[in-house]
Structures are given as C-alpha cells and as structure tokens.
C-alpha cells in the first residue's frame, strides 16, 4: 500500500506577500471611509480629503455671529461681564497690586484680574529656580525665620518660597508651643510637643471638646476640669501648692 504525501506549498516571497497585503488594506481603507489613510506601494502615507471652502465659510460665519452676540449682550459665554476700557485702564494703573485692584473691582475675582493682566502683558514672567537658590532653600527652610530666608533668597516672595519648598518636599520644623502665662497650661503644652501631640489630639484623648484646640483659656478664665483631664491623660499628677 502506497501512501501519498501532501504536496509542499511553495513559499511565498516576502515581497509578493507585502504587495498583496498593501493592496488589500488599501482597498478596504478606500471603501470604508474617504478620509482614511491610503497605502501606497512604497509604504504607508496619510492622505486626507481637503475640507471644502463652504465648511470654512460656515465656521467663520458662526464665529462672527457669536462675537457680535457677545458684544451686544456684554456677557461672555461663561456668564461673566466683558472687560471695559475703564477696567483695563485700572489694571495698567495699579499694575501688579492685586489687593488694590480687588478693592476697586469688587465684582472681579483675583484669578480673573490676574488672568486679564496676563492677557495684557502686565504680569512678570516666572523665573526658574536656580540650583543655588534650591540649595539655600533646603538649608534654611526647616528652621530659619521668614526674614532670614527672604534675605537669603532675594527677589522671591514668601508665597513663592513656600510653594517651591512644598513641591520639593521641604518641611518647616515644628516649634514649641508659645507660653500662655499659666503654669499648668504651659506644662501640658510642653508635654504634648514632646510626645508630638497636637491640641486636637489632646482634646480627643481627654474628651474636652475644643477647649485646647480653640485656646479656650485665652479669655483669662482657665477651666480646671479640662486641665485636670489633660493632666490625667498625659500620665501626670495633680499636686496642690499652697500660698505662703
């Protein structure tokens, strides 16, 4: 019994296969959409049908109609009033003084004033931080005072410095709580600073509401009950001290 072997197919050359593939894809692209890309024999090239002049004309007419409508109504599409010549004159007069402009233009937000100043070319361009400034900021920001940092980095406002430090992960070192003049309160606050508790944490642990968080003693009337609770929570001892 003789077995018949299937005839081996002749290998198709890569050039012929690529030509057939490009031809098929090109026909499908042309049939699916007139805006589709067209394959040429030398590779893939993009060819799009030009937009008719009538569509350009229609878009220009719509834009002109919208501009005329905005001028007649005096209101932008977002609902804000258009800027007048008098307002722009104030922007030029008080250039950069946003507080003064905010007082004279109460119906405009600070962001709107800043944006309009930028459109008129009245704002300063942002100056990139140099490596020397960043090194100084890294060294001084954790513990130095505001005055020392501002004098070491001239030409920068404190808001710019704080934003640059926040972006780079620099943090201010927490300082001890200010003295209140009341010995018990000062001892409590010093202990909280030592164990890294905030006044909010102390109120939550002692169940004193918002007494320590809102400086309830600042009116000159110290409440003994929340102070006693705070001392107990902090593992302290209340001892009487007699006047001589």
Low-confidence stretches: 1-14, 32-46
N-end to C-end Cα span: 130 Å
Strand order in the sheet with the most strands: 1-2
Shape: elongated
What integer value in Å does the Rg equal? 37 Å
Describe the structure.
The chain is elongated. The N terminus is likely disordered. It has a two-stranded antiparallel ribbon. It starts with 13 loop residues before the first helix and ends in an 11-residue tail after the last helix. It contains 11 helices and 2 strands; from the N terminus they run αββαααααααααα. With 244 residues, it is mainly α.
For this entry, give a set of tags.
mainly alpha; 244 residues; disordered N terminus
Could you outline the blueprint of secondary structure elements for this entry?
Blueprint: H1 14-32, E1 38-40, E2 43-45, H2 53-73, H3 85-93, H4 98-104, H5 110-119, H6 131-140, H7 146-152, H8 158-167, H9 183-194, H10 199-206, H11 224-233
Antiparallel strand pairs: 1-2
């Amino acid at each position: 019994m003789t077995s018949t072997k299937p005839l081996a197919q002749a290998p198709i050359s890569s050039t012929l296969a690529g030509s057939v593939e490009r031809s098929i894809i090109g026909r499908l692209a042309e049939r699916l959409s007139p805006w589709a890309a067209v394959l040429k024999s030398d590779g893939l090239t993009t060819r799009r049908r030009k937009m008719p002049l009538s569509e350009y004309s229609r878009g220009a007419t719509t834009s002109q109609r919208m501009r005329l409508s905005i001028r007649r109504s005096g209101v932008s599409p977002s609902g804000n009033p258009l800027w007048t010549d008098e307002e722009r004159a104030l922007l030029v007069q008080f250039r950069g003084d946003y507080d003064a402009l905010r007082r004279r233009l109460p119906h405009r937000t600070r962001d709107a004033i800043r944006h309009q100043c930028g459109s008129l070319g009245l704002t300063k361009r942002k100056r990139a931080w140099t490596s020397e400034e960043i090194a100084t900021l890294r060294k001084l920001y954790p513990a130095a005072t505001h005055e020392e940092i501002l004098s070491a980095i001239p030409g920068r406002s404190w808001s710019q410095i704080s934003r640059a430090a926040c972006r780079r992960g620099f943090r201010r070192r927490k300082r001890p709580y200010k003295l209140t003049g009341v010995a018990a309160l000062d001892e409590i606050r010093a202990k909280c600073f030592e164990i890294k508790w905030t006044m909010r944490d102390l109120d939550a642990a002692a169940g004193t509401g918002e007494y320590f968080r809102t400086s309830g003693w600042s009116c000159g009337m110290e409440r003994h009950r929340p102070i006693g609770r705070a001392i107990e929570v902090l593992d302290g001892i209340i001892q009487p001290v007699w006047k001589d």
